[in-house]
Structures are given as structure tokens and as C-alpha cells.
Design a protein that fits this description.
Keywords: Membrane, Transmembrane, Transmembrane helix. With about 325 residues, this protein is an alpha+beta fold. It has helices at about 5, 10-30, 80, 170-175, 245-250; strands spanning about 60-65, 90, 100-110, 110-120, 140-145, 150-155, 160-170, 190-195, 205-210, 220-225, 235-245, 265-275, 290, 305-315. The structure holds calcium ion (3 copies).
Length: about 325
């Protein structure tokens, strides 16, 4: 773990804490509107109005690899075994513990960002087989990657069917020059205005979503450790293995010209979650969405709540015993 993040001076914590409390006070007074709360978009933003406590957002160190994993959904490579794993995901809204374990890990090399999920699931289920179908209507696993002015959404179910959307903050669409790009023109098929899911009054406003967009060169695979759609047995779960080419992710760097691939100690914001079609029985408060970094509201589309992923040039094999 990184000292920089875990030895935060008390005074900083206190400042964040006070800002957070003041914000909640302000939000309460303002009701539905956000009045004159100023929003200054930056990729490393600490947004005062956010429903997630900024000082509680997880930090993760992503190490480099020399040998690319085989993208087959099986996380049996030594690299994945050595990679730091997230704590088990918590409820997206309440932050409370969940009935099944979920972990994620990130690795990288100069060509790809690699992401893995370990998903405990006693009854594997999937129904959607069409690419860009509404995967969130199945039990799914989701990945969001944020740039300064845009973010990428990825979903996958136990069949390995995927859903991808690229979102650009409307206020940055023209000023950021996205409107002149081939994939993001004003007449692009699958382009729609989007206002979040359960947190509509996001102060940054609307996004423009591009549902037909694909992350070129993306490789994804699922390993189902059990039987899908057969509840006569009890399954162990599923694992997800992803390789996302930096050359395609580079579109997220447009806002702030961040390095592609990242440099040592660069920090990106990413969100890791799963959504289930079931909920744990009461009295558990299970929203059905579980995440590495809880958001405090029913909405994934909040980059200011995403996990901090810090890239390290150190090779993961240095941790081999
Ligand atoms: Ca593999
Ligand atoms: Ca798509
Ligand atoms: Ca089964």
C-alpha cells in the first residue's frame, strides 16, 4: 500500500471532513438546486458536493507486467495471483457488507490495461447474448474509466456478452473538441443525452452518450465456475478478465492530455462494480449494486466517486516470494 495515501495528515482529513459536513448542510438548504456551488472540472477532482466522502474513496496501486495474461477468463496467471486485490465490494449506496464476495485487480503494460474480477455467485445466471444488449438487466460486472471530460462504461454478464457506452460531459463536448471527432459527431447513430441514473442533479449536468461506440481492440473473457441457468447445483462464481488497449483508451486523455500509457505514479479514476437481479433478504439493506468504492446513491455515473488507481512501473514479479 502506498504511504502517500494512507498517511494523510490529520489536518487534511479534518479539512475534508468539515468541507463534507458543510456541503451536506448546503445541499440540505438548497433543496433540489445546487445554487452557486462552483464546479471546476479536473480529473483529480475533490468535489465538495459529492454524496461519497472523498476521504473514504479507495486507493489502489496497479503494477506493471512483462508477460501479458491469456485473456480466457481464468485468472490462473501468476501475475493475477500476485496482483493486489480489492477488498470485497460493498453496497453501492450504504457501503455495508454484502452477502457474496467480489474482488477486482488491475495490472498494466505499455500496450494494455488489464482488469480482473473474482465474483462469488451461488446461482450463475445469464440471458443476454446480443452485444450491447441491456446487460445490467442480468447479473453483471461493470467497469468505468474516467478522463477529465469523458468516461467509458463497460458491462459484462456470465455469458461474456458485453455492453459499452462512451459518455462526454455536455459542457465539454464542444470546448473539448469532441464534436469534431469521427466517432462523436452530432449525427452519430446511437448518440443520446443522458442525465445519470439515480443522481439526476449532478452539478456538471448532462452527458452525451454514444451507445454504438466500441473500444477498439478490447479483449474480454469470462470463466463460469459452475453451471449457468441451472440452479440444481450451487456454483462457485465467475471470473472476468479484460485487456483494454491504451491506444483506444487514449480518447479519454483528450481533456487533459494525460500520458498514454500512464507514467509512473499517474493516477486515474476507475469504478468497479457488480449488479445483481436479487437482493439479500431483510433486514440486510442490499441495493442490488455492490462496488469497490460506494457512491452513496444509486448511480454509477459519478467519476468523483471512482477508485483512485495509481500506476507503478514496478514489475509485479518483484513481489514473487
Ligand atoms: Ca487468463
Ligand atoms: Ca456500444
Ligand atoms: Ca448453477
Amino acid at each position: 500500500m502506498n504511504k502517500l495515501f494512507f498517511h494523510v495528515p490529520l489536518i487534511t482529513l479534518a479539512t475534508f471532513g468539515i468541507a463534507y459536513l458543510l456541503t451536506w448542510g448546503s445541499l440540505g438548504n438548497l433543496g433540489k438546486g445546487f445554487g452557486n456551488i462552483e464546479y471546476v472540472p479536473r480529473s483529480m477532482d475533490t468535489i465538495k458536493y459529492s454524496p461519497c466522502a472523498q476521504f473514504e474513496i479507495p486507493n489502489y496501486q496497479a503494477y506493471k507486467i512483462s508477460n501479458a495474461p491469456k485473456i480466457d477468463g481464468r485468472l490462473d496467471e501468476l501475475e493475477w495471483q500476485l496482483a493486489p486485490r480489492s477488498p470485497s465490494f460493498r453496497d453501492l449506496i450504504s457501503g455495508s457488507g454484502t452477502i457474496h464476495d467480489t474482488h477486482a485487480a488491475v495490472l498494466w503494460d505499455d500496450e494494455f490495461l488489464y482488469v480482473a474480477y473474482w465474483v462469488e455467485e451461488p446461482n450463475l445466471q445469464a440471458s443476454i447474448t446480443e452485444r450491447d444488449g441491456l446487460i445490467y438487466q442480468d447479473n453483471d460486472v461493470e467497469l468505468f474509466i474516467a478522463g477529465q471530460d469523458a468516461y467509458y462504461e463497460f458491462e459484462i454478464n456470465a455469458y461474456g456478452t458485453i455492453y459499452e457506452v462512451f459518455f462526454i460531459w455536455e459542457e465539454a463536448y464542444i470546448t473539448g473538441g469532441y464534436d469534431t471527432m469521427t466517432d462523436f459527431g452530432i449525427d452519430e447513430p446511437g448518440r443520446r443525452i443522458f442525465n445519470g441514473v439515480g443522481y439526476k442533479p449532478h452539478p456538471r449536468g448532462l452527458r452525451i452518450g454514444f451507445w454504438n461506440w466500441d473500444l477498439k481492440g478490447l479483449r474480454s473473457a469470462v470463466f463460469a465456475d459452475g453451471t449457468i441457468n441451472d440452479d440444481r447445483d450451487r456454483d462457485r462464481g465467475w471470473t472476468v478478465e479484460l485487456a483494454l488497449p491504451w491506444s483506444s483508451i487514449s480518447v479519454l486523455a483528450k481533456g487533459d492530455n494525460r500520458s498514454i500509457p500512464p507514467r509512473h505514479k499517474d493516477i486515474w479514476r476507475m469504478d468497479f462494480s457488480r449488479f445483481n437481479q436479487y437482493k439479500e433478504a431483510k433486514p440486510a439493506k442490499d441495493s442490488g449494486g455492490w462496488a469497490w468504492s460506494p457512491h452513496g446513491v444509486w448511480d454509477s455515473h459519478m467519476p468523483e466517486c471512482f477508485t483512485f488507481v495509481k500506476f507503478s512501473e514496478e514489475d509485479i514479479m518483484n513481489f514473487k516470494k
